[in-house]
Design brief:
Enolase-like, domain 1; 3 domains; 474 residues; five-stranded antiparallel β-sheet; FAD/NAD(P)-binding domain; seven-stranded mixed β-sheet; alpha/beta
Length: 474
């Protein structure tokens, strides 16, 4: 023992204060356990709250307000030119983040959870040492919730420019509104931020290595967003790659290999949105014999236990979608298991939401997965062009799609592209978790006029045809 070391003895140590970690810590404390929460950052909330979900959705909301006003010109609203104050916008985002982070800190304090700031590393099967706090925590149970981090730029792509090329975190601080912006990566992060900056007034070019944008989503959903991106962006290069980034005066000179040949173009700013990787390095896992796969993910069972039954792992460090709501659910399960309750992370589906324009959301089986696995499905689609509420507010881009088992009519999947998709998808997720069938949604009265009616209409379309769609003549 080093002189001056602090030692805690606790029932549960939670490593990581993101959505999964703080949920696990608070839930365990509510179940009567003594808890120590270790977080390397000065604030609680994790990447989602501080650098990702919350700042990005705040920025997107502001841009959407401006876009709604512009679009409302056709409805008779008269307005002068709309502009943005980058400093005030950045301040609004940071205030939102700070308020929520402070709220999490107060929840943790309210439960008498001991909060230790620093980097935790396992030194024995029942001990962690926290660098930066000179602290040892001896525990009965541990929860690893260290999240993920942004991938580094590929070696040689932008030698010496790592601090000058924007990441999603730096872009969401809104340091400026660049005249031109290159977005590397056509996943949801690249599209969300790219569309936001296009809305702020930047000329955006996007480069994606794969043949299609948003590779994880059904392409009929993506096509609706792609049409909007084609209006907003200066150029979209799929099946392409950035070969080299060099500093120019001003901005950056970028060499791009496209399907039509190599191009070299100057941009004011470059954003690398090339994915994330789990934070499982330098935790001392190997010394404990905890299994990690080739992608750095920790192997767990349906109770989120690792190969050492008293150590659990949740969130981005485990297999499955790297989503805050998945991590929070796992956090609750872990706390219940530690407290001796019967619980398991046995959810049938995890909803995915992309805050693009328009939004995309899906849950359960996708049409792409059904085709790959040769699963027979009945598909019902309802376009928002036929929905009264969508027509009345001028938001008719998109549709709702329901997949059901042809025999039992049990709902297997739901996908939405359009206004409020992020809010509407929960009905589909609940239906799947409950084992609901088409009839359950059809006979449940949906208020009129609302966007939620589109779900009922899609269920009718899957079963026998919606009364609000033209009947196909034989």
């Amino acid at each position: 023992m080093v002189v001056g070391e602090m030692i805690y003895d606790t029932d549960v140590v939670v490593i990581g204060g993101g959505p999964g970690g703080y949920t696990a810590a608070i839930a365990a404390a509510d179940l009567g356990k003594d808890v120590v929460l270790v977080e390397v950052d000065d604030r609680l909330g994790g990447v989602c709250l501080i650098q990702g979900c919350i700042p990005s959705k705040t920025l997107i909301h502001v841009v959407n307000i401006a876009n709604h006003v512009k679009e409302a010109g056709d409805m008779g609203i008269v307005f002068q030119d709309i502009g943005f104050n980058p400093k005030k916008l950045a301040s609004h985002i940071q205030t939102t983040v700070a308020d929520l982070a402070d709220g999490v800190a107060r929840l943790v304090e309210n439960r008498d959870i001991e909060l230790v700031h620093g980097h935790a590393r396992f030194i024995q099967p029942n001990q962690v040492y926290v660098d930066g706090a000179n602290t040892i925590v001896r525990f009965k149970h541990a929860v690893i919730a260290t999240g993920s981090r942004i991938n580094d730029l590929p070696e040689g792509l932008g030698e010496g420019l790592e601090r000058e090329v924007w990441t999603s975190a730096s872009a969401l601080v809104v340091p400026e509104i660049p005249e031109s912006l290159l977005v590397i990566g056509g996943g949801y992060i690249g599209l969300e931020i790219g569309q936001a900056y296009a809305g702020l007034g930047s000329r955006v070019t996007l480069v994606e290595f794969a043949p299609h944008l948003l590779a994880g989503a059904d392409q009929d959903l993506v096509q609706v967003v792609l049409k909007q991106c084609e209006k907003q962006f200066e150029a979209i290069h799929t099946d392409s790659r950035v070969k080299k980034i060099t500093k120019a005066d001003p901005g950056f000179q970028v060499d791009i290999a496209t399907r039509k040949g190599d191009v070299s173009q100057r941009f004011s700013r470059v954003l690398a949105a090339t994915g994330r990787r789990p934070n499982t390095e330098d935790l001392g896992l190997a010394a404990l014999g905890i299994d990690v796969d080739v992608n750095g993910l920790i192997l767990v069972d349906d109770q989120c236990r690792t190969s050492l039954p008293h150590i659990f792992a949740i969130g981005d460090v485990t297999a499955g979608p790297a989503l805050a709501h998945k991590a929070a659910r796992q956090g609750r399960v872990t706390a219940q298991v530690i407290a001796g309750e019967k619980s398991a992370y046995d959810n049938v589906s995890v909803p995915a939401v992309l805050f693009t324009s328009p939004e995309i959301a899906w849950t359960g089986l996708t049409e792409t997965q059904a085709k790959k696995k040769n699963i027979s499905v009945t598909v019902g689609k309802f376009p928002l062009t036929a929905l009264g509420r969508a027509k009345s507010v001028g938001k008719t881009r998109g549709f709702v799609k329901i997949l059901a088992d042809p025999g039992s009519e049990r709902i297997l999947g739901m996908a939405i592209v359009g206004e409020h998709a992020s809010e509407l998808i929960s009905e589909g997720n609940l239906a799947i978790e409950m084992g609901a069938c088409l009839e359950d949604i059809i006979v449940s009265i949906h208020p009129h006029p609302t966007f939620s009616e589109s779900i009922m209409e899609a269920a009718e379309a899957a079963r026998k045809g919606s009364v609000h769609l033209m009947k196909k003549r034989r």
